[in-house]
Q: What sequence folds into this?
């Protein structure tokens, strides 16, 4: 495992952190406990020293699973991160309530890295109204957390405002070779780094979209390189190549993915990619922008929909059909969904758009999906 200095903190992080958001599940949607614990412990046994979870992950079950995985001495081998559910905070007492519940669920006396989850302008304004700064100082003094940061989903100007408003230890942004100019983006990455705020990268594979075999037009670009990297390794190495990236989080869904990512991390390094390899990524970026109609990462923040529309699945089928020119196959899968799950069932209530961290115009995009498959 390669380790990277984390900004001004006296600690080196494993190049790869474990994101506890996409565990394997059983037929009834529950976390596959034994397999998931094996995944976390394999990662730790092979050098991963940062585990990231959050209140809403897996229907509020992720923190409980992580607590089980970190028994038997594993807790002392890692830095543990979780997040305050910003959208549920209405008064100062709410902040204490959720933090204390998380300490209980995680079966720990303190949280190493605590984040204000999914900040945007509205949530940040609310936190400032509640004097979150005094609350942060209080919980730091109490020893309930060791470091404070935030995860972010809004535009760059809001990111800069939040960075400047407090002396943060770290932040977490969505960043990958397709999201260079999205939300905080590369500009935000460099701004935070210059302020000595450690930047942890989430969605390095854009919800798994950069892990699958790409369309032929993109495969041919990758083939221009002299190496035999996997598509996952291309995406991860592009991030690790940048000095501003503290480390990356990957939400892995099976043990093979853990093994593959651990191996990639072991071969990572700053400025390790050649100019030819960087040029290949630039060409891939341009081609993907031409092909992908909806920038959905499959995070599922938008569901459950009030009327039952399976928003992520609709977008996944739409993107796959467009990217891979596989209309017939994906149209069949679309029509196998229940009527309430289809894009055509959208009633335009807008509840989902308030929750989407990508800022997707979901109502408009669902109309496009319905027209595409029903037209």
A:
């Amino acid at each position: 495992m390669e380790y990277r200095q984390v900004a001004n903190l006296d600690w080196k992080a494993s190049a790869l952190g474990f994101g506890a958001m996409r565990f394997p599940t059983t037929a009834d949607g529950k976390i596959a406990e034994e397999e998931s614990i094996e995944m976390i412990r394999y990662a730790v046994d092979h050098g991963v020293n940062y585990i990231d979870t959050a209140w809403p992950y897996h229907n509020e079950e992720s923190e409980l699973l992580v607590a089980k995985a970190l028994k038997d001495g594993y807790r002392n081998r890692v830095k543990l991160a979780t997040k305050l559910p910003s959208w549920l905070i209405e008064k100062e007492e709410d902040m204490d309530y959720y933090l204390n519940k998380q300490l209980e669920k995680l079966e720990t006396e303190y949280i190493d890295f605590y984040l204000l989850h999914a900040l945007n302008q509205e949530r940040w304004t609310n936190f400032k109204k509640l004097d979150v700064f005094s609350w942060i100082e209080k919980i730091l003094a109490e020893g309930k957390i060791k470091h404070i940061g935030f995860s972010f989903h809004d535009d760059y100007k809001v990111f800069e405002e939040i960075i400047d408003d407090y002396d943060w230890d770290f932040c977490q942004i969505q960043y990958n070779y397709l999201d260079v100019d999205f939300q905080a983006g590369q500009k935000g990455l460099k701004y935070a780094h210059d302020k000595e705020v450690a930047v942890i990268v989430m969605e390095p594979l854009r919800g798994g979209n950069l892990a699958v075999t790409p369309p032929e037009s993109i495969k041919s670009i990758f083939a221009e390189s002299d190496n035999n990297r996997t598509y996952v390794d291309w995406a991860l190495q592009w991030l690790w190549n940048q000095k501003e990236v503290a480390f990356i989080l990957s939400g892995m869904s099976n043990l093979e993915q853990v093994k593959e990512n651990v191996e990639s991390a072991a071969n990572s390094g700053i400025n390790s990619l050649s100019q030819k390899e960087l040029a290949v990524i630039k060409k891939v970026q341009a081609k993907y922008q031409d092909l992908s109609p909806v920038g959905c990462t499959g995070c599922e923040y938008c569901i459950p929909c009030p009327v039952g529309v399976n928003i992520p699945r609709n977008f996944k089928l739409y993107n796959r059909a467009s990217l891979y020119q596989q209309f017939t196959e994906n149209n069949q899968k679309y029509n196998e969904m229940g009527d309430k799950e289809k894009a055509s069932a959208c009633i335009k209530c807008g509840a989902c758009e308030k929750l989407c961290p990508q800022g997707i115009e979901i109502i408009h995009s669902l109309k496009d999906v319905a027209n595409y498959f029903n037209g």
Q: What stands out?
A: The chain has a mean pLDDT of 94. The chain is about 45% helix and 15% strand.
